[in-house]
Amino acid sequence: KNSVESIDNKNISVHNFALGQENKTMELHKSPTNDGGHTLVPARSSFSEKDRAIDSIELKNIQELIDLGKIPSPDALKIDVEGFENEVLLSLVSLLRKLKPIMLIELNNQEIANQGVTFQTLKEIYSNDNNIRFDVPEFKCTAQNIDDLSSVANKFRKDGHLLCNYLFYKA
Q1: Please, what sign has the CA dihedral across residues 125, 128, 133, 134?
Q2: Is the Cα torsion angle 41, 46, 49, 51 positive or negative in sign?
Q3: pLDDT of 95-130, one tens digit each?
Q4: Contact (Cβ atoms closer than 8 angstroms) between residue 28 and residue 54
Q5: Are 63 and 95 in contact (CB under 8 A)?
């Protein structure tokens, strides 16, 4: 919230809920030192259980919010959800296929290189669309086809990069 308020942009709104496939309440495991390190996946937390605070947070389905007119369809998405990527992507499947918004998503290179569930979801969403490309802006890796995602992630993993931001867009 503080980051968004600091840029004074009226086109960005902050909501105090998480995105997922179903509407429910979940435990949010909060990092004691890093606001960007909070997670809904306790096994992915990088802090000890004794140092972790736990709050509850509402999980909402984005497609339902759009269908009810509570939020507009996004032109761009930024997803940095500390291990909850697949759950968020699954809630966005129809939106991503239909509207093809720009999406910047932080992904775990090991999971993508091993073609885990998040990789499989991205392939399912984009494999039939030859116009979708991805870049890794922080490393100036540009215009890759979705079929190259696993090998690109493996290269970054071998270079010691656990996480990378991947930018997906319509060519």
Answers
A1: positive
A2: negative
A3: 999 999 999 999 999 999 999 999 999 999 998 898
A4: yes
A5: yes
